[in-house]
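Can't paste images in this forum, so I'm doing it all in text. The chain is below; anyone willing to post the predicted structure tokens underneath?
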Amino acid sequence: MNRFVLMMLTVLCVVRIAEAARVEKPWPVGYALNVAQITDEKISYIKSLGISYIELAGIGALLDKNLQSTEVVPNWSKRMQDIATILDRHQVRVWSVHMPFSRHMDISRLDEPGRLRVLEAHQHVLDALTPVQPRFILFHPSYYLELNQREARVDQLLRSVRFLNQAVKDHEWEMVVENMLGPELTVNERERPLLRTVEECLAIFSRFPEEVGLAVDMCHIAEPEHLIRAFGSRVKTLHVSNGNGQAEHHYLPCDPRGTNDWNAIFSALQASGYRGVFMHECKFQDEQEIVDCYDALWKNYQTHLSINE
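Text version of the structure:
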């Protein structure tokens, strides 16, 4: 091969990589934002960065933390209307809402009066969310379990999911359930929450109403691309962060302390036909970091595809 041909091939390769880096991301960026932090200034700022979707976090503030009452704290009805006004002004949409979770708010509770009380509280929260009109309502499947309760907790979860799915549908929204952290079954003489492995997720979801989707948390499981591929189009939303499936790190995706393979994750999302928001639930100092990191990861993925074609 003469030097001219070699030079031309090098130029073509460089051009191809540059073109790949310009391919638009198929999923808009979003992030989880505590409802207490929503102000006109904050929403104006994130919109200026190109963030048009949020997940409402911190929703537990709407309820008494010990569930002494199932009613929403009174001032939150007006607060939700104010939040809706702010979001509408800046054309930012609530993609998802992370529903309250705790030992008391566990939808797999074995004590039937307590479980029904939890469902009642969730219904009141759903009603309070009406002004912000979310697309998805996200639930945890359980809290930590006492030893040897797993099958009984699954049965209670199924009862709750059927009820809550209808309650969510009554608002014309969609229900999703999140996979949970669980590198080992037990920790500190407790069992970890339900939906801790790909296999357990598949087994339990096979008993859910088919329209209930999966929210994939990329910190809760090692190599989350396998969970994405296993569920395909049933993956409805994401919690994007870096981690290793061992702890609740929720690092920024570009943080090298995590072990996620973003090229494999992007490939799995494309193969599954995911069309939702790239919704971050991660640690950061400024929202600009989220946008810049996503851009960098996507450009790296496009370069990876070009080199490996």
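Residues 4-21 have pLDDT under 50 and may be disordered. The longest strand covers residues 29-34.
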